[in-house]
Amino acid sequence: MSATSTVTVTVPATTANLGPGFDCIGAALSLYNHFQFSLIEPSATEKLIITVTGAEAAKVKTDDSNLAYQAFVKLYEYLRQPPPPVTIHIDMQVPLARGLGSSATAIVGGLVAANYLAGKPLSQVEVMQLAIELEGHPDNVVPALLGGCRLAASKAPPQPPLAKGGLREEIPLFKGEIIESSPLNQQEITEQIPLFKGEIIESRPLVKGEIIESPPLAKGGQGGGSWEICDIPWHSSIVPVVAIPDFELSTAEARKVLPSDYSKADAIFNAAHVGLLVRALETGNENWLRAALQDKIHQPYRQSLIQGYEAVQQAAVAAGACGTVISGAGPTILALTNAASAPAVERAMAAAWMEFGVKADVRAIAPDTQGSQVST
To answer: Are residues 289 and 323 in contact, defined by beta-carbon separation less than 8 angstroms?
Structure first.
C-alpha cells in the first residue's frame, strides 16, 4: 500500500477557444468536479468500485470505461506498473457534453490522483503531457490542471526547406554540428539539460546566447514535452457569463462540421484576432475585446448546431456584453462583459433562449486561478 491511501482531486470546468483561439486557448472557471480515489486491499474481491453523485450522475459510466479511471490506469502504464484496486467517488457539478470541459476534469482528476497514490513520481509537466495525449488537444486539460487562462503552442521541429521539385533537402545534423543555413553562432549551441522522470527543472541565470529547449517552471511559462504553455493575464473587469442550455452537443459532432482546409485570408484573420484577444484580456480594453472575439475557423460552422444561437448572441450584446463565443464545442455560450452589465446579460440570454423553448442555466462565474487541487 502507498503511504497515501485516499486522495481527493478537485478540478475546475474550462471554457476553450474563446473565439479565435481554436484548440490553443482555454480558461478555468470556478465550477468544479470532485474525484475521490481510495486504494483497496489487493486481496479484495472487487478491484474497481465507482460511485457518482450530482445532477447528471446517471450518465456517468461506472465500469472500467470510466474516463477518470482510464486516465488513472494510463499513468500507471506510463510508470510500467499495474494499476492498484481502487474505489472512486465522483461528485459531478460540471454538466456533461455542454462545452465546459467535463472530460478534461475526468482526465486531470484521474492522472493527478494516480500520481499522488503512486508517490508523486511524475512532475506537473509530465502529468500535463499525459493529459494532452489523452484529450488530444491542450485547450481544456491545461487550464484544468494549472488554472487561469492558458495558451498552448506546439514545439514542432522546423522542416528543412523545399528543394527543386518539392522534395525536402536532407540536412545532416551530427552531435554538436551547427547547420550552415542556421543563423546560430558558436555561442548559441544549447547546453543539454536532462529532465528525468519526476524532476522539475530549476531556474538559473542564462548564459549569453544560450537557448534552453524546455524552460523552467515559472510564472508566465511552463515547458514540457512538445508544448509551450504560457499564462494569459485575465483583467479583473472582464466577467464571464455562461449560458448552459438543457441540451447536449458532442465534441465529435461539432468537429465533423469543420472544413479540412482554410483559406490564407481566414488564417491571417484568426492569427490577428488571437493576438488582439491576448492583449484585450490582459488590459480589459473593451473595444479590443469586442473585435477580438470574432473567429473564422470554427464558430461559423458550429452555429447551426446550436438552436437559437444568433438570438442569444444578439440579446447578450444588446444587454451590454462585449461579445459572445461558443464555449468549447458548445452548446454553452460564453459572454464576456463587465460587472455592471452582467445581471442584464444573464437575464437577456436566458430570455432569448426561452423564446425557442430552451431552458438555460445562465450565471456570471469567476475565473479559477488555482487549477486542480489535492486533499488527502
So the answer is: yes
In the chain the first and final C-alpha atoms are separated, in Å, by: 15
Domains of the chain, start order: 6-154 (3.30.230.10), 239-364 (3.30.70.890)
Number of Cβ within 10 Å of residue 49's Cβ equals: 14
Give residue for cell 488590459. 283
Integer Rg of the chain from CA: 23
Distance in angstroms (rounded) separating the CA atoms of residues 239 and 298: 23
Higher pLDDT, 70 or 159: 70
Q: Find, among 108, 134, 130, the residue nearest to 373 by Cα.
A: 108
Q: Are 338 and 323 in contact (CB under 8 A)?
A: no
Amino acid at 72: F
> Beta-carbon neighbour count of residue 206 at 10 Å?
10
Residues in the chain: 376
Full-model pTM: 0.81
Give the number of C-alpha atoms closer than 13 A to the C-alpha of residue 360, restricted to the C-beta side. Answer: 31
* Distance between CA atoms of residues 127 and 229, nearest Å: 14
Closest alpha carbon to 352 in 362, 339, 363: 362
Q: Are 230 and 154 in contact (CB under 8 A)?
A: no
Query: Is the sign of the CA dihedral 15, 268, 254, 344 positive or negative?
Result: positive
Give pLDDT, residue 158: 54
Q: Which residue has the cell 508523486?
A: 120
Assign 42 a pLDDT band (cuts: 50, 70, 90).
Answer: confident
